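Predict the 3D structure for this chain.
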Amino acid sequence: MEKLQAVFETVGGWVWGPAMLILLVGTGVLLTVRLRGLQFTKLPMALRQAFTRTPGQEKEPGDVSHFGALMTALSATIGTGNIAGVATAVVLGGPGAVFWMWITAIFGMATKYAEGILAVHYRITDARGEMAGGPMYYIERGLNMKWLAILFALFAVVASFGIGSSVQSNSVAESIYTSFGIEHALTGVVLTVLTAIVILGGIKSIARAASVIVPVMAVVYVLGGLIIILLNLEKLLPALSLIFTDAFTGSAVAGGALGTVIRYGVARGVFSNEAGMGSAPIAAAAAKTDHAGRQALVSMTGTFLDTIVVCSITGIVLVMAGQYTAGSTGAALTTHSFNAMLPGWGGYIVTFGLVFFAYSTILGWCYYGEKCAAYLLGTRAVLPYRVVYVASVMMGTIASLDLVWAASDTFNGLMAIPNLIALLLLSGVVVKETKDFFNKIDKGELPK
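Done. Predicted structure below.
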């Protein structure tokens, strides 16, 4: 087991190395240029599309609303990376890593937009009458490379049992045990039952649950963070100044390595918002929409909300607290920092966020995994997949996960390679669909 873990850690180090990070960010930069900075000029419109209902939307093909698709994607995206991942970036890369997380998100918005366009453009109706889409479909139908589509789906199924379920349930059990002393197994039983109730109902059930859980958990966590910032306002400007100066000097990192600041900022930014990973477009394909461009705008807001909003709260509080050199890392550092800034309540804010962020990730990743399983084996694989997935939630709360984490982190990274190839080769389709969408809006053929 130790040798196998070492192999996965070695492969994972290569997969998540500088070449991958350059490819991820480079794809976002290229798409930003080709789309003429759409994530800047169309963000207000995108947010309006996400949180309001387009006239006649309920009659459009699809399984859930724009909002439901966004919340399903966000349920999987807003997870432990927003709490533990940001803390790890600040410890290993210094305060400047927060700045590079922002940069990654800005270009990642263009990537997420392109994923949304292709997801809807190439989606199909499966044997159960549900929409099915995502990288495996736009790789097969857009590039005629079924072997690459199969690889993506296989990587995603394997990753779902780790990064999607067992790793998340383990985080919940650890957090509840630390805060309340409740045993892991008891947490596991409750979490497994709650997961089964939701996911056995399919995408509509997952979207309904996500549409309640995600807004509540995000608002509570963000408001809690904002209260901490407002109560310690005198530390805000020095913290922001440190973030911006350290981003270009690396002075807070041992040896002053600027490359380390950039690497960890980019890596944790991508890990948090999943732009380019190929997971979110699977949810985007389920949306009821009159045009691929409309859902693409909605998908784009996911990266903005995840990193520019939620991760920023964590990062700024961590830098304001100044405890990132004290030896703690991950969720423990975030808990200590929030507690130091808001004694008594700060730790509970982090516990609340971690529990609900992780639970929502379990729900969202089940949908990703089952769609990939169905692509590989047909819709008959969906129910068995859900049963095994629910079991993996329980296992995660009581098992040691070092090997699982190393393996799932590797497969999570491997997912990105087929997806990024498709995004680059199909960028012309993204531009064409974008022009068609906005031309139809200008002519009054589609509502704004």
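Residues 146-180 form the longest helix (35 residues).
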